[in-house]
Hints:
The chain is mainly beta. The chain folds into two domains: 11-154 and 294-317, Jelly Rolls (Sandwich), CATH 2.60.120.10; 156-288, Jelly Rolls (Sandwich). The chain contains two helices and 26 strands. It has helices at residues 120-125, 306-317; strands spanning 4-8, 14-16, 20-27, 43-54, 66-72, 75-83, 86-90, 95-98, 103-107, 112-118, 127-137, 148-152, 159-163, 174-182, 184-185, 188-189, 198-205, 209-216, 220-227, 229-232, 235-238, 241-245, 263-270, 281-288, 296-298, 301-303. The strands form six sheets. Strands 1-22-19-24-17-14-13 form a seven-stranded antiparallel beta sheet, with no helix packed on it. Strands 2-3-4-11-6-9-12 form a seven-stranded antiparallel beta sheet. The chain has a four-stranded antiparallel beta sheet with strand order 5-10-7-8. The longest helix is centred in the C-terminal third of the chain and has 12 residues, at 306-317. The N and C termini lie far apart (48 Å). The site of manganese (II) ion (MN) has 5 residues, from β5 and β10.
Amino acid sequence: xxxxxxIHGDKAPxxxxxGFYVKTLINHLDDNPHFNYSHTDPFLLFxxxxxxxxxxxxxxxxxxxxxxxxxxxxxxTVTIAYEGEISHADSVGGQGIIQKGDVQWMTAGRGIMxxxxxxxxxxxxxxxxxxxxLWVNLPSAHKLTDPNxxxxxxxxxxxxxxxxxxxxxxxxxxxxxxxxxxxAWQEIRGAANTFxxxxxxxxxxxxxxxxxxxxPNTHNTLLLVQExxxxxxxxxxxxxxxxxxxxxxxxRTDGQAQQTLATDNIELHYPATENGKxxxxxxxxxxxxxxxxxxxxxxxxxxxxxxxxxxxxRDYQTGNFVK
Length: 323
Ligand code: MN
């Protein structure tokens, strides 16, 4: 079993633009002595937007809620819409609407400008909005890769059924499912292309029971409880908390195939309620092989050295950022 190291949840929410009300649950710039980025590498930042109700916006055409044109360089942003819809447009012609359950995997690489707003349909009608945005680092060999945009629809995600392991007599009871956004669940491959080995699994439990997640023993590992409450390795965790597990004890050696790696267990126990009504539990599992390189980041840019970071700001200020 991979023990729990930390639970990140007790953070004050803040607005990103006027459309996204988020808690930054981890940030590679965190100077808290209990936080060490090498234990979440390659995951730089994790913003969680809990379900928040927005009124209809009658001024959508002129004042949509969200964030206007802004740059990114040196990493990838991964956006998941849990409730509501996000519209996106970028400087390399990528555009689309991230609808409920969809995932946008945007590679900023050598530089991109983009905007992120509530979609027009959602803005006009209002309602509950909830999302996650994750920043994934790029290794130096791919930091200046071409910007790219993967639009991944919920219907395109492979689904794995989760079988109850709590009772040997109920080995066929399905208690939930996992949608494989990235990485692999045994032989099932996720929908997203990644530059380094990463698992991103969107998990839902609907029936009381227990099940085990298996993550490579070389990966840094995090688990968001997005909705509901359950026991993770015997510890009760509720919605809005991001569990950080102990650092891996093994490191992949050069050339060793990902498939040959051993796994660590994460035990999920979803207790039955007294009245028999189960509020669903929704989880997001993140695991990734540490890149293990120096990080120099500030604002929307994440490079390897301070000089690369200064040059990026100079390029941006002199109009040489996106050519
Ligand atoms: Mn952005």
